[in-house]
């Protein structure tokens, strides 16, 4: 595998880094922006889920747009939108402005997450396609790591004497720092060639051959050219592509497989855990500072196990990684549900007197009452303090009141993240980039990614309401039960795609 090929794949997948960075950043931002704008659970959910809501429409159309104007041009526009979103989010003066700024970022997320695996698959060989497409997921988790580390330091120095960081400004810095990687992404994309398979699709054969030779060298480049040209001869008499063509009987099997994997990736709650990581760790009573540092640990685990996926995906295959990972996700989430179910909540008079916020005495009617679930305790605390005061001090309150096996919850969360990082996270995008013929690839991946992002945005939107009204235990039990059902479905239908060219996979899975 040439250095040129690796460099190109890394640059194109930097859009994933920006996605992960924004997703990780928002978990810390809401601890400050939520109280400042006095957001309720649904409003907080809208701010967090806004990018995914916008992304689902971008995912639906970005593949087709790139079929017309090219993968590279579309990615350059994506990088520009990332920069606009970072600046406007940091300067937001209202809930509405913050929401719409994140909508802009969502358009960029959606397009980048679809186009990167398409582009990388189209420049890769069958031997290294899995690991190269997985670089997007690696960049996503590096983005999470950078965001959680950034949040940790911003939170650490927030309020320090002579510092410009305050509760009112720190979240703006958290959001604005995303501008730097967005600019780097935009600049590096100018060093990336156009997709050779897209060039063939447009009849620009000489230009495509030059790109393939540049990337792979003359010998391997010639083999890739031969495989693509055989496919083009078989494809040239087919009718023009229409939206309804993805529903053809010949594509039914691979469409169903893609939809199931795409839905399962999000409906098990991965973005709820990532986007609300700080809030979830606060629920264990470990405190605000520890919640921010736990986010760094979470993202470190993501990075480590994404490397595991990159190492194994072209050795072990896609099917074993997905099956083992999905089973591990189910066990980990059910472990979290069990841990939260055993928790109790009780705040003493001594705790109340030690709280540093001014309205703490309003909690005295709750003193020494034992609550056996988090919903009842949080509802009573919000009623006593008001939503805004509680939201600003929930870390300290829960730290004092919660009796729980926090290590058990941490093991469950980290287990979930680890299993996702070597299975559903990277493998889904690899599968989607492999299963569909080049003629249908942009459209089919766009449709599945639309459903994927729709599920993601709904999970993120509802999750704060779930924690507030259903509680931690039931919320995690629902995710775990869904993962368990998903495991048995994948066990029955999931194919293996490793070690075959895109053209060979088309012959195997597309029924004429």
TrEMBL record:
It is a multi-pass membrane protein. Its main location: membrane. It holds the Pfam family Sugar_tr. Keywords: Membrane, Sugar transport, Transmembrane, Transmembrane helix, Transport. Residues 8-498 form the Major facilitator superfamily (MFS) profile domain. The chain crosses the membrane at residues 7-33, 45-63, 75-93, 99-120, 132-153, 173-192, 253-278, 290-313, 320-340, 408-431, 443-463, 469-491. GO terms for cellular component: membrane. The keyword Transport applies. The keyword Nuclease does not apply. It is found in: Membrane. One of its GO terms (molecular function) is transmembrane transporter activity. SUPFAM superfamilies: MFS general substrate transporter. Belongs to the major facilitator superfamily. Sugar transporter (TC 2.A.1.1) family. This is Sugar transporter subfamily protein.
């Amino acid at each position: 595998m040439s250095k040129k090929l690796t460099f190109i794949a890394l640059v194109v997948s930097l859009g994933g880094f920006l996605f992960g960075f924004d997703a990780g950043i928002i978990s810390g931002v809401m601890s400050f922006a939520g109280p400042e704008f006095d957001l309720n659970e649904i409003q907080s959910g809208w701010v967090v889920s806004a990018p995914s809501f916008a992304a689902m429409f971008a995912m639906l159309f970005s593949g087709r747009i790139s079929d017309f104007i090219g993968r590279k041009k579309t990615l350059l526009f994506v990088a520009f939108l990332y920069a606009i979103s970072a600046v406007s989010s940091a300067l937001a003066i209202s809930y509405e402005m913050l929401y719409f700024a994140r909508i802009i970022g969502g358009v960029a997320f959606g397009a980048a997450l679809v186009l990167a695996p398409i582009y990388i698959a189209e420049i890769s060989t069958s031997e290294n396609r899995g690991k190269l497409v997985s670089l997007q997921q690696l960049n996503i988790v590096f983005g999470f790591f950078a965001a959680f580390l950034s949040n940790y330091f911003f939170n650490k120095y927030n309020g320090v004497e002579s510092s410009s960081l305050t509760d009112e400004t720190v979240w703006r810095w958290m959001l604005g720092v995303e501008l730097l990687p967005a600019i780097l992404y935009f600049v590096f994309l100018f060093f990336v060639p156009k997709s050779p398979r897209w060039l063939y699709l447009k009849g620009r054969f000489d230009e495509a051959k030059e790109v393939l030779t540049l990337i792979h060298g003359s010998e391997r480049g010639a083999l890739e050219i031969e495989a693509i040209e055989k496919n083009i001869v078989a494809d040239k008499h087919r009718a023009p592509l229409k939206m309804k063509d993805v529903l053809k009987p010949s594509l039914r099997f691979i469409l169903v497989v893609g939809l199931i994997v795409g839905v399962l990736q999000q409906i098990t709650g991965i973005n709820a855990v990532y986007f609300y990581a700080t809030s979830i760790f606060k629920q264990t009573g470990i405190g605000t500072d520890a919640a921010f540092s736990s986010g760094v640990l979470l993202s470190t685990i993501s990075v480590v196990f994404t490397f595991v996926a990159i190492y194994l995906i072209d050795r072990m295959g896609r099917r074993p990684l997905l099956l083992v990972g999905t089973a591990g996700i189910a066990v980990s989430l059910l472990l979290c549900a069990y841990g939260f179910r055993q928790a109790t909540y009780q705040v003493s008079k001594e705790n109340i007197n030690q709280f540093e916020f001014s309205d703490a005495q309003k909690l005295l009617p709750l003193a020494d009452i034992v609550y056996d679930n988090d919903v009842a305790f949080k509802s009573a605390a919000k009623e006593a303090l008001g939503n805004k005061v509680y939201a600003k001090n929930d870390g300290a309150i829960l730290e004092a009141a919660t009796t729980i096996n926090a290590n058990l919850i941490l093991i469950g969360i980290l287990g979930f993240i680890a299993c996702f990082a070597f299975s559903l996270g990277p493998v889904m995008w690899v599968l989607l980039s492999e299963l569909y013929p080049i003629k249908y690839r942009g459209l089919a991946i766009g449709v599945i990614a639309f459903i994927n992002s729709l599920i993601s945005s709904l999970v993120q939107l509802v999750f704060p309401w779930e924690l507030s009204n259903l509680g931690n235990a039931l919320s995690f039990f629902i995710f775990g039960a869904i993962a368990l059902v998903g495991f048995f479905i994948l066990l029955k239908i999931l194919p293996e795609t490793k070690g075959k060219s895109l053209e060979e996979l088309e012959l195997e899975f597309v029924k004429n």
